[in-house]
Amino acid sequence: MALTRDAVLAALKDIEDPAGGDLVSQGRIKALNVEGTSVRFVIEVPGDKGEAFKPARDAAEAAVKALDGAETVSVVMTAHSAPKPPPDLKGASKPEPKGPQKVPGIDRIVAIASGKGGVGKSTVSANLACALAAEGRRVGLLDADVYGPSQPRMLGVSGRPASPDGKTILPLRNYGVTMMSIGLMMNEGQAVVWRGPMLMGALQQMMNQVQWGALDVLIVDLPPGTGDVQMTLSQKFQVDGAIIVSTPQDVALLDARKGIDMFTQLKVPLYGMIENMSTHVCSNCGHEEHIFGHGGVAKEAEKLGAPLLAEIPLHLDIRTASDGGAPVVVSKPDSAEAEAFRAMARRLVENNLA
Ligand SMILES: Nc1ncnc2c1ncn2[C@@H]1O[C@H](COP(=O)(O)OP(=O)(O)OP(=O)(O)O)[C@@H](O)[C@H]1O
């Protein structure tokens, strides 16, 4: 049987962490890569604790080597110069503002943004998250679209997240994606009138109190436009990259440009652009036509020197799949529509961006 990432993680979960718990739940395992019979990973330990972790490192290597199908195992131990600060669970202490912070346990934060509403940002976020999970990445999806949270419906999850200890929040999970939505913290149909400070508090709660576990990437589905949520996210948390979704039309592109300018000012790197609803493919006869034009985003991306990450067709299956709670990447993984998302996910993984 082929060796899987899950089997490796399960073996590592049995290894005690000198600081308590096990190596996986402490978030020590980074950059895990399983290719055929070869396994590579990094154990990240506090700077002054290298010696104390050596037995755990040896035990981890032995446990993975003992797995069926594992031949070469390469383990590297790296040390932080300073230990990560613990998350501020109560939000009671107010540290001095120190610029964007990394969230412990989350390797990368990738924001999915659009200038204009309804261009398919949430559809792209859900499909990209599922496609990255299918590539073996540990993926979180934070639905920060306070004006129209849609990820619970798109990922087919319902119910309110539990908080057994009253301090941390247990996220929901489907299709290998760990998901939390600001929408789940509000009553259904409640008009969102949150402004700056409330949004900031809610976002901080989502980042620090949700038990995301160790993630390779957290995808953040932002509200459309250039408002408080975008600013707070980029100023408080270290966002590794932004992906801008636009339709090919000029009007949507104009708004997308504003979004790009905002991320540039906030010093968030632009990973690239996505043209959604690029070509309409008739679900009956396969005839293709460009309802919203075609190629506008590619031209804009070229002008900006940014990669065009994908051209997603306008296809009935993409909408019905999302409405039905199983994104097309999950419900029709071999379709051309799913492939557009999967190719993008592979490209991001290959370039170590997600
Ligand atoms: N490529 C596509 N083909 C067919 N339907 C699509 C496609 N992309 C999005 N849709 C549909 O368009 C509608 C709007 O998409 P979505 O909710 O993802 O947009 P959005 O940009 O997140 O909107 P908002 O930010 O305003 O909530 C949804 O019904 C969705 O299913």
TrEMBL record:
<dbReference type="InterPro" id="IPR019591">
    <property type="entry name" value="Mrp/NBP35_ATP-bd"/>
</dbReference>
<keyword id="KW-0547">Nucleotide-binding</keyword>
<dbReference type="InterPro" id="IPR033756">
    <property type="entry name" value="YlxH/NBP35"/>
</dbReference>
<keyword id="KW-0378">Hydrolase</keyword>
<feature type="binding site">
    <location>
        <begin position="115"/>
        <end position="122"/>
    </location>
    <ligand>
        <name>ATP</name>
    </ligand>
</feature>
<dbReference type="GO" id="GO:0016887">
    <property type="term" value="F:ATP hydrolysis activity"/>
</dbReference>
<dbReference type="Pfam" id="PF01883">
    <property type="entry name" value="FeS_assembly_P"/>
</dbReference>
<dbReference type="Pfam" id="PF10609">
    <property type="entry name" value="ParA"/>
</dbReference>
<dbReference type="GO" id="GO:0046872">
    <property type="term" value="F:metal ion binding"/>
</dbReference>
<dbReference type="InterPro" id="IPR044304">
    <property type="entry name" value="NUBPL-like"/>
</dbReference>
<comment type="similarity">
    <text>Belongs to the Mrp/NBP35 ATP-binding proteins family.</text>
</comment>
<dbReference type="GO" id="GO:0140663">
    <property type="term" value="F:ATP-dependent FeS chaperone activity"/>
</dbReference>
<feature type="domain" description="MIP18 family-like">
    <location>
        <begin position="5"/>
        <end position="75"/>
    </location>
</feature>
<dbReference type="InterPro" id="IPR034904">
    <property type="entry name" value="FSCA_dom_sf"/>
</dbReference>
<keyword id="KW-0479">Metal-binding</keyword>
<dbReference type="InterPro" id="IPR000808">
    <property type="entry name" value="Mrp-like_CS"/>
</dbReference>
<keyword id="KW-0411">Iron-sulfur</keyword>
<dbReference type="InterPro" id="IPR002744">
    <property type="entry name" value="MIP18-like"/>
</dbReference>
<keyword id="KW-0067">ATP-binding</keyword>
<keyword id="KW-0408">Iron</keyword>
<protein>
    <recommendedName>
        <fullName>Iron-sulfur cluster carrier protein</fullName>
    </recommendedName>
</protein>
<comment type="function">
    <text>Binds and transfers iron-sulfur (Fe-S) clusters to target apoproteins. Can hydrolyze ATP.</text>
</comment>
<dbReference type="GO" id="GO:0005524">
    <property type="term" value="F:ATP binding"/>
</dbReference>
<comment type="similarity">
    <text>In the C-terminal section; belongs to the Mrp/NBP35 ATP-binding proteins family.</text>
</comment>
<comment type="subunit">
    <text>Homodimer.</text>
</comment>
<dbReference type="GO" id="GO:0051539">
    <property type="term" value="F:4 iron, 4 sulfur cluster binding"/>
</dbReference>
<feature type="region of interest" description="Disordered">
    <location>
        <begin position="80"/>
        <end position="103"/>
    </location>
</feature>
<dbReference type="InterPro" id="IPR027417">
    <property type="entry name" value="P-loop_NTPase"/>
</dbReference>
<dbReference type="GO" id="GO:0016226">
    <property type="term" value="P:iron-sulfur cluster assembly"/>
</dbReference>
